[in-house]
From TrEMBL:
Pathway(s): Amino-acid biosynthesis; L-lysine biosynthesis via AAA pathway; L-lysine from L-alpha-aminoadipate (fungal route): step 3/3
Molecular functions (GO terms): saccharopine dehydrogenase (NAD+, L-lysine-forming) activity
Every Alanine dehydrogenase/pyridine nucleotide transhydrogenase NAD(H)-binding domain range: 171-312
One GO CC annotation: cytoplasm
Name this polypeptide is given: Saccharopine dehydrogenase [NAD(+), L-lysine-forming]
Segment forming the signal sequence: none
Enzyme Commission number(s) from the entry: 1.5.1.7
GO biological process, one term: lysine biosynthetic process via aminoadipic acid
Binding-site list for NAD(+): 129, 195-196, 219, 223, 243, 272, 313-316
Length: 368
């Protein structure tokens, strides 16, 4: 019997340095009997040589369209827009199941080619929780960006362009240096602290030196009393990491900020949740997503009051491509190991069932 094989394709989305497979997880798959084919990719945070060293077979960049049809192709982000039919099985984030712009034309490519899509966002365990997600490093990087913005604001400056860090240690050291050697003395409040993003934010604050008592960790129990919350105004950095699933009272409002005037401690809000355009956004004090080039947006605070900014970047894990990839890929590994039995393994049969439902909707929408 031939060995199960997976093909790691290159990423074509600008700035995307993360990877669905890492040298670590590729080695584990090889040890479990897989052949792993890896496209050369300068954009990826891992060097091609790191994959070669663990026994992967290297192939040309973007050569997956000519791969044998029976080999599943794994990648992270969506493929470049095209109408080319897709005959392979693809494992990736496709962003086409929630009627996003262009959703039906993406699925039409699979219909026309006879391929299959397993969307990484919808690989779930028995309880419906995602098997792999990037939340932890989103929170970690978001908290770091918040601390950097605070350091800049203290010097009367605006935070400049953010660039991906080679690794977590480099990020932690850069944030500590910006704060004059340590974050000790800074106060932070994380809401959604028990979730993936929230745990990452709390860990960053610990690593840069905040005192345990200066990191307020709130989740459902603490917000049950209903906002807005004065406590948010009394810290330097507020990081929102909740998963918004239903309308809730606002956490923070312009009215509160106006009323606090010069007595406000709060200088930076990091909205990791980024429900920016959601009508139920619990932080209705800003209305755009910020970017790595321009990470902060000022909040209207009234003449003579201390400045305040919001960071609302929706792809924060890109700031830590190595660790974010390692964590995501290792969480995905148990499911990948079941790929050879994808006709019966629940995680894959559920994902295929969902794909077929969405495909049927797309076929109708496109009149195919
Ligand atoms: N900005 C980015 O780059 C980025 C990256 C990944 C995820 N996200 C977003 O971050 C959000 C959180 O993702 P996650 O993976 O951490 O989710 P999660 O489900 O692991 O955690 C969410 C946490 O929020 C808590 N929560 C929900 N409603 C709350 C409320 N009203 N008050 C207090 N706590 C509340 C939950 O109890 C849970 O602990 C999602 O909206 C996700 O889309 C953003």
């Amino acid at each position: 019997m031939s060995r199960p094989t997976l093909w790691l394709r290159c990423e074509k989305k600008e700035f995307e340095r993360r990877s669905a497979l890492t040298p670590t997880t590729a080695k584990k798959l090889i040890d479990a009997g897989f052949d792993i084919i890896v496209e050369r990719d300068d954009q990826r945070i891992f060097d091609d040589a790191e994959f070669e060293a663990v026994g992967c077979k290297l192939v040309e960049n973007n050569s997956w369209p000519s791969a044998p049809k029976e080999i599943p192709i794994i990648g992270l982000k969506e493929l470049p827009v095209s109408t080319e039919p897709l005959p392979h099985t693809h494992i990736q984030f496709a962003h086409c199941y929630k009627t996003q712009a262009g959703w039906s034309s993406v699925l039409a490519r699979f219909h026309n080619g006879g391929g299959t899509l397993y969307d990484l966002e919808f690989l779930t365990d028995e309880s419906g929780r995602r098997v792999a997600a990037f939340g932890y490093h989103a929170g970690f990087a978001g908290a770091a960006a918040g601390a950097l913005a605070l350091a800049s604001q203290k010097k009367g400056k605006k935070l400049g362009k953010l660039e991906p860090y080679a690794n977590e240690t480099e990020m932690v050291e850069a944030v500590k240096a910006a704060l004059g050697g340590t974050g000790k003395g800074v106060k932070a409040l994380v809401i959604g602290a028990l979730g993936r993003c929230g745990r990452g934010a709390v860990d960053l604050f610990k690593k840069i030196g905040l005192e345990e008592d200066d990191i307020l960790k709130w989740d459902m129990a603490e917000t049950a009393k209903g906002g807005p919350f004065q406590e948010i105004l009394d810290v330097d950095i507020f990081v929102n990491c909740i998963y918004l699933s239903s309308p809730i009272p606002h956490f923070l409002t312009h009215k509160q900020i106006d009323a606090a005037g010069k007595d406000r401690q709060l200088a930076v809000v990091v909205d990791v949740s980024c429900d920016t355009t959601n009508p139920h956004n619990p932080i209705p004090i800003y209305n755009i997503n910020t970017t790595f080039s321009n990470p902060t947006v000022p909040v209207e605070v009234g003449e003579g009051n201390p400045s305040m900014t919001v960071i609302s970047i929706d792809h924060l894990p890109t700031l830590l491509p190595r660790e974010a990839s390692e964590q995501f890929s290792s969480d995905l590994l148990p499911s990948l190991l079941q790929l050879p039995s994808r006709q019966t393994a629940r995680v894959w049969t559920d994902a295929e069932k969902l794909y077929k439902e969405k495909l049927a909707l797309a076929v109708k929408a496109e009149g195919l």
